[in-house]
Write a structure and sequence with these properties.
Belongs to the NADH dehydrogenase family. Its cofactor is FAD. It comes from Glycomyces albidus. This is Oxidoreductase. A hairpin with a 3-residue loop joins strand 13 (210-213) and strand 14 (217-220). The protein has two domains: 3-110 and 237-319, FAD/NAD(P)-binding domain (3-Layer(bba) Sandwich), CATH 3.50.50.60; 115-233, FAD/NAD(P)-binding domain (3-Layer(bba) Sandwich). The chain is globular and about 65 Å long. By secondary structure, the protein is an alpha/beta fold. It contains ten helices and 23 strands.
């Protein structure tokens, strides 16, 4: 009987883990099924480009998983029973329950309105392709001189506001940040951000809390109403709520607590990768939600599963950071080099070279899920149980 591995979610981490498992385990011993709501891979780190009107290359899973024996099930996950080892999904044919022996939970995260009044009703999000497309359609109807306000001073907010300002110089674009502009990068990095924002004509409201989002304005904690025909919310992410509803050990925000193998500390047959997992890095600090964290988590989870099933030795990539890559439109960028625990170093790259560097990183993030065994021999290992059975059969014939 085949060992059933189900991967929930086919973003960067789920796709990478599924492909790596399928190319390193023998298909006679293992069945790998990916459950995802969409039929093609979504480059989430480029959703600000989609919102700005750019078209991305389609990456169907039929091409990504070609030759791997991975089965893709187009369905929405509605529940996980970690004790019974089942997953409930809904597809075009109705409700179905899937049984697993090993589960890779990679459902990721979505936007988080932080409970701010009016956000859910009036703000747009770019954490998903549908959200980015809705914003794109709305922006296309804006007349010159109208206002667009991006809430959130992190990586997503900065990339979004610069992309929009560059693509629509006829609009009045602003950023609202709880802290200072780029206060997480080096002084040289902040100076570069300020210069790019100045050239693009972006208004910055620093150290500003948002108390309410209205249809035509953003209300600050001080009661000021900032005019906003379109408000884009990028202030934080929320993990998918399914894990928190299970018996698995999770954090207060719903992330699955995992060990160094990316296995759930309460249910070792469940592996959580990407934003869905709460993992401690090499420096002793929790990893932040990011592609930079999710990629090594997916490698570790897949290799840990292979090692557990076959008796092989898992090779572990480092769980630490080296850089933060920020696009500032299509022609500008900022590459901030960081310490292993994600603190800014004085060293950075900027300008057009940094923009090309960032583009290379984005292309690599989409390329690796389709080439999960790059740099490693793609040997398909037999499960330990299958090898024992084969040895017993050979001795019986002798």
């Amino acid at each position: 009987m085949q060992h059933r591995i189900i991967v929930l979610g086919a973003g960067y981490t789920g796709t990478l883990a599924a492909g790596r498992l399928a190319k390193r385990l023998h298909p006679e011993d293992v069945a790998v099924t990916v459950v995802n709501a969409e039929p093609d891979f979504v480059e989430r780190v480029r959703m600000h480009q989609v919102a700005a009107g750019q078209d991305l290359k389609r990456r169907p899973f039929s091409e990504i998983f070609a030759g791997t024996d991975v089965e893709v099930k187009l369905a929405k996950v509605t529940a996980v029973d970690a004790d019974a080892k089942t997953v409930t999904v809904v597809d075009a044919n109705g409700v179905e329950q899937l049984e697993y022996d090993t589960l890779v939970y990679a459902l990721g995260s979505g936007w988080n309105d932080q409970g701010v009044p009016g956000t859910a009703e009036h703000a747009y999000e770019i954490a998903s392709r549908p959200g980015a497309l809705r914003l794109r359609e709305r922006l296309a109807r804006l007349d010159a001189g109208q206002t667009v306000t991006v809430i959130g001073g992190g990586l997503t907010g900065i990339e979004a506001v610069t992309e929009l300002a560059e693509s629509r110089p006829d609009l009045d674009v602003a950023l609202v940040a709880r802290g200072g502009l780029g206060d997480w990068v080096s002084p040289k990095g902040r100076a570069h951000l300020q210069e790019v924002f100045r050239r693009l004509g972006i208004t910055v409201h620093e150290h500003t809390e948002v108390a309410e989002v209205r249809a035509d304005a953003v209300v600050t904690g001080d009661g000021e109403a900032i005019p906003s025909a379109v408000t884009v919310w990028t202030a934080g992410f929320a993990v998918h709520p399914i894990a928190a509803a299970t018996t698995m050990e999770t954090t207060a925000n719903g992330q699955i607590v995992v060990d160094r193998d990316m296995a759930s500390v309460s249910h070792p047959d469940v592996f959580a990768v990407g934003d869905a997992g709460y993992a401690i890095g090499d420096t002793g600090k929790a990893l932040r939600m990011s592609c930079a964290s999710g990629t090594p988590m997916a490698w570790i989870a897949a290799d840990s599963i292979v090692a557990r099933l076959t008796g092989a030795t898992a090779k572990r990539p480092p769980l630490s950071y080296s850089q933060q890559c920020v696009s500032l439109g299509r022609n500008e960028g900022l590459i901030q080099f960081v310490t292993p625990d994600d603190q800014a170093k004085p060293t950075l790259l900027r300008g057009r070279f940094a923009a090309r560097y960032k583009e290379f990183i984005c292309k690599g993030a989409a390329w690796f899920p389709a080439h999960p065994t790059f740099g490693l021999p793609a040997r398909r290992r037999r499960l330990a149980a299958a090898r024992r059975q084969g040895s017993t059969a050979t001795k019986a014939l002798a």
